[in-house]
Amino acid sequence: MGYHLSEDDPLWRDDIVEKLNAHRLTLVFLLFCFSTVNYFDRIVITAAGPRIMRDFGLSPTAMGSVYSALVLGYALFMIPGGHLSDRIGARRALALVGVVSAIFTAMTTLAGTTLVPAWISTVAILIAIRFALGVASAPLYPACALVTRNWIPAVFHARVQGLVIAGSSLGAALSPVLFTWLLTRFEWRTAFLPAALAPAALAAVWYWFARDTAASKEPAVEVLKQARNPTPWLLLLANRNLWLLTCAYAALGYFQYIFFYWMYYYFGQVLHLGEADSARYTGMLFLAEGLIMPLGGLVSDRLAKTRGLQFGRRWVPIASLVLAAALTCAGTLTEGLLAVVCFSLAFGSAACCEGPFWATVTELGGEHVGSASSILNAGAQLGGFFAPVLTPIIAALLGWSWGLYAGAAIICLGAVAIYFIKIQPAEKLPLAWALSETV
């Protein structure tokens, strides 16, 4: 049986809920902005991709390697990035993400210029820059989870995490539309400069406003100060539920990165919808994802209260992933706007997992939530690393529909992993659930 929260449980007390005040809402808004800007900078290269491929004679497979470089850097440095967030605090970690991301986004303009030695190929420099941008982005979501744990009442965890990650959808939706608009007025190198200014400006605002812990006069959340004890990596890595959750998130990451990096190409080159319509419809995908994503967290929180924690955290992701797989297959069998609608609903349905996944790991991680979150997110990036490369290979062998079928099959495997997660509260942290089961 799942753990059932009674209405008298302090997690649901009205006076705690009312403490989601203006300061905390501003923190959540800034986290949402970080998510938006970071994904805008990640995805802009897909809009510039056809022009870069044309200018330098790159194949889709070579460009897929450029796309995957960011994911590789992000995945390899996810655990160090999460550990860094625990050690220096979310305030400094997120400011660092903003500044360094701005630098490497701007450095994309160096590709193919005389500033790069002739013996370094364009593909190599693009891979190096995108890898570095992935490294710079690694602490982002572990730091956001740390802010959520320190400032947000547990009754809002899934909703807040879903909302913050929904910022990635807004950034990804704005990216092809705004960047395509910039490309109609400037050459692609110039268009990268505004994308570099945004994270630097946000980092300055965040560092001025944010603090790592709440003031003692605000009793809404009992804040545990930043851990200075060594991170219990062996215990985290031996946690069966964390591994199952990470495998499910890896499956979701594979599916999502197909949409991040290849749907613009799919609309334009496979469905022949044209550059403007491809940008517009790709934006629709990410808007649908962003609008639907917070619903997963909302439903999960409510079901956790009424039907038990295990029911709420388990069945929302299972239903979401199975529905996403079915809608993806339906999209490959249709054309035009109907295909776009199917793909948009599939992408949004899969995104409903974000809130429950991140709420679970936030509550699981305790004082080491940054490190636990980094393990979870490393799984997503591992899955995401393979998607940009394998998808065009599968498409070349079997057709583009099979590249999408592969993503649908993989998220069904993720749903199976979620089914075997056994959620039991080993201990009740102040205003948080601690969910752990070690092998």
Topology:
Blueprint: H1 14-17, H2 22-56, H3 60-76, H4 78-88, H5 90-107, H6 122-137, H7 140-151, H8 157-183, H9 188-209, H10 233-237, H11 240-270, H12 275-306, H13 309-332, H14 336-351, H15 354-365, H16 369-398, H17 400-419, E1 425-429, E2 432-435
Antiparallel strand pairs: 1-2
Question: What do these coordinates show?
Answer:
The protein is mostly helical. The chain has a single domain (10-213, 230-435), classed as Up-down Bundle (Growth Hormone, Chain: A), CATH 1.20.1250. The protein has 17 helices and 2 strands. A two-stranded antiparallel ribbon has the order 1-2. Strand 1 and strand 2 (432-435) form a beta hairpin. It starts with 13 loop residues before the first helix and ends with a strand. Residues 1-18, 215-228 and 425-439 have low confidence and may be disordered.
Largest sheet, strands/sense/barrel: 2 strands, antiparallel
List the uncertain runs.
1-18, 215-228, 425-439
Distance between the termini: 20 Å
Strand content: under 5%
Helix content: over 70%
> Can you give the mean pLDDT?
79
Give a count of the beta strands, DSSP E runs of length 2 or more: 2
